[in-house]
Each structure stands twice: as C-alpha cells, then as structure tokens.
Amino acid sequence: MLSRKVADLLQRELDTSIVVENRPGAGSTVATGQLARGGRGADHTLLMASPGHTIGASLYPNLRYDPVADFAFVRNVINIPNVMVVPASSPYSSVAEFIEGAQTEDLTFSSSGIGTSIHMSGELFKYIAKLDLAHVPFRGSGEMLPALLSGDVDVSFDNMPSVYPHIQAGKLKALAVTTPEASEFLPDVPSIQQAGKDYGLENFETYAWFGLIAHKSFPEAGMAKLQAALDNVMSSEEFKTFLPQFGAQAGQVVGDDFRQFIQNEVAKWAEVSEEANLKR
C-alpha cells in the first residue's frame, strides 16, 4: 500500500510512469538481491526497503550483496511504531511488572515469523533486559493475533496498525511503544525507554521503517531530482492524510544520514542475532 501510494504521488510530481512490482521472499532479500545485481534498468529502479534489509544481513550470512556498500540511499519515508502488548487477561499492566514477572515465570513472546521487525523487537527487549523469554513464531499476523488475544502467548511487539483496534476495544493492553517517544495515536502509553529505564532499556529503540534505496550506480543528478520530488510528495496533504492508517510518522533521514542509519541497524541486529543464535 505504501509503495503504491508513493509511486502514484511521485509519478505525478515527476510527470513520468512508475511501475510497482512485488518481489517477495526470504525476508525481502530476494528483491534486494535483484536490485544489487544491477545491470539493465539499475539507473531507474528503486526498492522500498524495510527492516528486512538490515535484519536479513544478520540472518543470512551468505547473501551476495552488502546491505550498505552496494546501494545508494534516497530517504526514509515512514516509521511505524511497534507496540508491546499483552492480553486483556494478563496480570501485567506495565513494563516493570512484566519484566519482574518474566524474571520468575516462564513467559513467551510471539511474532509473525522469524526475522520480522516484530520478532527482532522481542529479541532486542529480551537481550537488553536479560530475560529468558521463549519465542513462538507464527505464519503471519493472521495466526499470531488470535493466540495473543486468547492468552496462549504472553506478549508481542506487534506493529501499530495490527493491534491498535484491539487496544481500543480493550482486548489487548498496551504496555509501551518501541519508539523513543510516545506515539500520538497512543498518547497515554509510555515508550519502552521511559518505562524500562530501571532495567537497562533507556536506549531501546526499534520500529518498522520504510525507505527508498537504489543501486549504487544510480546517477547523482537523478538522485538530487528524486529527493526533491520526494520532499514535495511527503509535504503534500494527500501523503499526510495517508499516514494515520498505519499509525506512522514521516521519515526524517535522507541520503548519507539514511545510509548511516542503515549501517547502525545492521550492526545492532548482527549483535542481537548472534546472541539469540538466529543465523540461518
């Protein structure tokens, strides 16, 4: 949905045709690998990258591309908070209560699959807080949410759009958001940084980010024109009114700053993956 909306707005801004092509597989590494190979069309092909771009580098050690060196970084487009949620029946109503419970009880956290931002948010939380939470992966949110709602698992770090209706309906309790600051969509819910500072979580930060990248050979003049067009797209009312359905915020980092963000994320997930023995 995001890719198609950005493509629609961008082609109007650039007065050109943009074709959106889905290339799923292996946590987005299939599409990324195709872009990295370059060749014909590399000077006018973009990829809507996501956390899989940085997480995949730690899970799949035999990738035939470098997630930083082989690409040009256009800009971060949106960021979607993950939310630490427990079933309505859970005895825990705060991050502190959950951590203290997890220190003495055998608790579980669920995800929509290994290597997703949901899974890795849980692994990061577990790693920093020094907890022994068991990971329960499901095949997508369609299977994961019923298990969480019923109390078959104890906690999840799901994306905002998936859990927001259930929080509003009182079926899930939101303990914290994974971004450094509270979300405007859940203004009374603290961040994990705020709620977990007594447990070493004062620097905890993760979210589902999405941003455009290109092959490293993408022409500089084209890059400048593209970034200017994206600035106009992202400042448009149509784009701004599109964001709330994702519980998202517009991205802020562009070019070299976006590259540095990616580099930092690669290093972070490599450390977490090593600790959790996740390499495949």
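Above is the first protein from milestone M3; the second protein from the same milestone is given next.
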Amino acid sequence: MSVRSQLLKGILDGCVLAVIEKEAVYGYELSKKLQDIGLQDVSEGTIYPVLLRLQKNGLIRGEIRPSDSGPNRKYYFLTDMGHETLATIIEEWNQITGPVNELLKRR
C-alpha cells in the first residue's frame, strides 16, 4: 500500500462525513465529489465499505429516494453522533497537521 493510500485511509471517514454534512448524497455522487476536489484515488469501490461502516457505527443514516433518472437511490445524512464525530475529527486533524507541517518544513 502506498504512503498516499495509507494517509487517505486514515482521514477518509472525516472527508466522507464532511461531504455529507454539506448535503445529502448517494454513493456514486459522493465518490465524484471527492474526486472533484482532488482525491482521485477514491472510487465507488472504496466508498461503499466506508458508508456501510459509518452507517453501522451510527454516524450516518441512509434513506431511499426516487431518482429522476433510473432506479431509486440511497441518500446518506449525518446523525447527531456523526456531527459530533466530524467536529472531533476536525479538531484532532488541526492538532496533528500543524506540528507535522512544521516538522516537514524543516527538511
């Protein structure tokens, strides 16, 4: 596994929660949104296991809605616990990235 993949795996839950916090999305749409911001490594095959785990852990909930084109889609929403977890992830991320950036600048 590449360094990039390992780093992304560590923060992907937070990225997924951050997208869902902005608006309800379905799996493929979520994957495209992450790719559009530059996370090209995030495919549908990567997203669905993450969504399943987040839902199992009570951080998101799914709701089937009709689609204008094709079959119904499962849209995901943050739960209260999902909002709290995202806030914690953001806080922890900020505490980690500052010192790490400082160390890496010293090279």
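Note on the second protein: Residues 80-105 form the longest helix (26 residues).
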